């Protein structure tokens, strides 16, 4: 049975008790409205540890002024049941007041330079500062040995890895594979914003990522691969923020340079902004 904890002292006491027994603690931070992708992270982290904590906290500091903070879907009962089924031991539910005791405006912020400045960082200024600010606080609250983040938020995972390395959190970070719907659409809490007519078109992103990979592997120059990706998305009715090929550290590769790649897309269909990526 999952235990729901809403007070920081109680969370610390529970985790201290586990550590006294020599148990290793895993952590999956979330913003709730959980789906199979989140539950797969709980199962993944469970393989590395003895106890799992998951948090649900819709973090105001990572939403821009015109983003969906107030309408972000909140589904506490389904989240609790799903986490319990996935093998989560403790659901940590901080409040905005306990997360930011001096208030959101006066909160100390964590900024990771470099990798947080490109792509999502350009489209959503301040977003990764909010993510790093809340993740640092959550790490200090939960004190996990291992924490899992989904690869769907590829850049977020890269930013968190740099945060952990730079601030020397003694936490192993693991990335969980993207979980997809049958037609290839990456699972996301934001998919439910898609209208009935938009939903089938949303799977175009996954197809375009595959086309970008194939074109790259066939020797097409990067600029052309990216232009073709943007055009294919625009043809399907998307407003494209980016469709790019990058090295795993998100820097720009030279044409003809060997090595692993990731194709990344962010694009809007109506009012819904979707991101996805494909490593190869
Ligand atoms: O990926 C998310 O859901 C959020 O960015 C996270 C890591 C829980 C921080 O609020």
Automatic annotation (TrEMBL):
<dbReference type="InterPro" id="IPR003721">
    <property type="entry name" value="Pantoate_ligase"/>
</dbReference>
<feature type="binding site">
    <location>
        <begin position="150"/>
        <end position="153"/>
    </location>
    <ligand>
        <name>ATP</name>
    </ligand>
</feature>
<feature type="binding site">
    <location>
        <begin position="31"/>
        <end position="38"/>
    </location>
    <ligand>
        <name>ATP</name>
    </ligand>
</feature>
<keyword id="KW-0436">Ligase</keyword>
<comment type="similarity">
    <text>Belongs to the pantothenate synthetase family.</text>
</comment>
<dbReference type="GO" id="GO:0015940">
    <property type="term" value="P:pantothenate biosynthetic process"/>
</dbReference>
<dbReference type="InterPro" id="IPR042176">
    <property type="entry name" value="Pantoate_ligase_C"/>
</dbReference>
<keyword id="KW-0547">Nucleotide-binding</keyword>
<feature type="binding site">
    <location>
        <position position="179"/>
    </location>
    <ligand>
        <name>ATP</name>
    </ligand>
</feature>
<protein>
    <recommendedName>
        <fullName>Pantothenate synthetase</fullName>
        <ecNumber>6.3.2.1</ecNumber>
    </recommendedName>
</protein>
<dbReference type="InterPro" id="IPR004821">
    <property type="entry name" value="Cyt_trans-like"/>
</dbReference>
<keyword id="KW-0963">Cytoplasm</keyword>
<feature type="binding site">
    <location>
        <position position="62"/>
    </location>
    <ligand>
        <name>(R)-pantoate</name>
    </ligand>
</feature>
<feature type="binding site">
    <location>
        <begin position="187"/>
        <end position="190"/>
    </location>
    <ligand>
        <name>ATP</name>
    </ligand>
</feature>
<feature type="active site" description="Proton donor">
    <location>
        <position position="38"/>
    </location>
</feature>
<keyword id="KW-0067">ATP-binding</keyword>
<comment type="pathway">
    <text>Cofactor biosynthesis; (R)-pantothenate biosynthesis; (R)-pantothenate from (R)-pantoate and beta-alanine: step 1/1.</text>
</comment>
<feature type="binding site">
    <location>
        <position position="156"/>
    </location>
    <ligand>
        <name>(R)-pantoate</name>
    </ligand>
</feature>
<dbReference type="InterPro" id="IPR014729">
    <property type="entry name" value="Rossmann-like_a/b/a_fold"/>
</dbReference>
<keyword id="KW-0566">Pantothenate biosynthesis</keyword>
<dbReference type="GO" id="GO:0004592">
    <property type="term" value="F:pantoate-beta-alanine ligase activity"/>
</dbReference>
<feature type="binding site">
    <location>
        <position position="62"/>
    </location>
    <ligand>
        <name>beta-alanine</name>
    </ligand>
</feature>
<comment type="subunit">
    <text>Homodimer.</text>
</comment>
<dbReference type="GO" id="GO:0005524">
    <property type="term" value="F:ATP binding"/>
</dbReference>
<dbReference type="GO" id="GO:0005829">
    <property type="term" value="C:cytosol"/>
</dbReference>
<dbReference type="Pfam" id="PF02569">
    <property type="entry name" value="Pantoate_ligase"/>
</dbReference>
<comment type="function">
    <text>Catalyzes the condensation of pantoate with beta-alanine in an ATP-dependent reaction via a pantoyl-adenylate intermediate.</text>
</comment>
């Amino acid at each position: 049975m999952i235990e729901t904890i809403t007070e920081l002292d109680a969370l610390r006491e529970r985790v201290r008790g586990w550590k006294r027994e020599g148990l290793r603690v895993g952590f999956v931070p979330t913003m709730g409205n959980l789906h199979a992708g989140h539950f797969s992270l709980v199962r993944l982290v469970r393989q590395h540890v003895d106890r799992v904590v998951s948090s649900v906290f819709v973090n105001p500091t990572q939403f821009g002024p015109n983003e969906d903070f107030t309408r972000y879907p909140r589904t506490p009962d389904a989240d609790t049941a799903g986490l319990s089924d996935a093998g989560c031991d403790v659901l940590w539910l901080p409040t905005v007041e306990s997360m930011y005791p001096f208030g959101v405006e006066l909160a100390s912020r964590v900024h990771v330079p470099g990798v947080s400045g490109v792509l999502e960082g350009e489209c959503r200024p301040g977003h990764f500062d909010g993510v790093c600010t809340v993740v640092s606080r959550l790490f200090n609250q939960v004190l996990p040995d291992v924490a899992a983040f989904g690869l769907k938020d590829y850049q977020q995972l890269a930013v968190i890895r740099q945060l952990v390395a730079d601030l020397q959190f003694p936490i192993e970070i693991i990335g969980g594979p993207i979980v997809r719907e049958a037609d290839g659409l990456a699972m996301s809490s934001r998919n439910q914003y898609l209208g009935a007519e938009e939903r089938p078109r949303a799977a175009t992103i996954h197809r375009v990522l595959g086309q970008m990979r194939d074109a790259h592997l066939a020797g097409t120059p990067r600029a052309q691969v990216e232009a073709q990706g943007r055009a294919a998305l625009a043809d399907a009715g998307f407003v494209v923020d980016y469709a790019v090929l990058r090295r795993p550290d998100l820097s720009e590769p030279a044409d003809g340079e060997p090595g692993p790649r990731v194709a990344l897309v962010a694009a809007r269909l109506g009012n819904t902004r979707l991101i996805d990526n494909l490593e190869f």
